[in-house]
Amino acid sequence: MIIVTGAAGFIGSAMVRQLNDAGHLNLVVVDEFSRADKNRNLLNKACIQKLDRADLFAWLDRMHASVDFIFHLGARTDTTEQDTEIFDRLNLHYTQKLWAQCTQYNIPLVYASSAATYGLGELGYEDNHNIVTQLKPLNPYGRSKNDFDIWALQQEKTPPFWAGLKFFNVYGPNEYHKGRMASVIWHTYRQIKESGKMKLFRSHRPDFQDGQQSRDFIYVKDVLKVMYFLYKHQKDSGLYNLGTGQARSFFDLASNTFRAMGQEPNISFVDTPEDIRDTYQYFTEANMAKLRSIGYAEPFYSLEAGIEDYVKGYLLEGLGPKVF
After folding, report:
1. 178 in active site
2. DSSP three-state, residue 255
3. Does residue 271 sit in the same domain as residue 130?
4. Structure pTM?
5. Residues 26 and 123 in one domain
6. CATH number where 201 lies
């Protein structure tokens, strides 16, 4: 059996699809299932059991001998939430307990870290274990992810294989329920559909033109391929960046979304809100050498190809939004 936590969410539900398509039907899916708006992400996907996240640990104590692997993708991901207790409970302590069980029961573990651990990128975006304690995340969400990474690297006893994946800006199907935390591509599509226009943040730095602020945008289908590679690989434990290795501008993102919708770009600029202006990231780009060094050789979707697949395959009128 393979366990997927956060299985009704964005990346978790997409991973269930990836596993099903690869022939893995004996899945145990874990989430907080009271939100009906997420449950449709699991429609037409095969699993043998659904577990509430609060019941996972007792279940593992009973059933661990039958578990081959765990993808821990469940977390509180709201970067605007300021209650550190929520993040300590759901992101830090929950993952520590799961790590302890994986160690005790010899179960390999892949878990979701985040590029939010890098803060403003003062030390760059290299997945080097030596800099983890020096990173300065910008919000409680990022700090909770970095706190766990620090803790994991300090452990003498570990699962037989583990990988913490520093997701950069993931976009793609099954994110429709995320509200403000959905990708910029999702929000761009919605804004264009409603108004025929897109407003981007103006640059407040002389070294960046308006709209040229950049992120490493990675299509969720690439994320799934990397995670499945690690499931098959199961060696070279550690932290890994998961982006494309190529930063792209918000102007490129918006322009390509217009084109995928069959429209000419109509882009204007508004001031970045003052409450986030001082901590706004102007550039992120994953150093992907470490993942490549352990044998992952697949190409990543370009921003153009990823947006076209996402918009035309899952968002355009009549599909809306179609679940992967």
Report:
1. yes
2. helix
3. no
4. 0.95
5. yes
6. 3.90.25.10
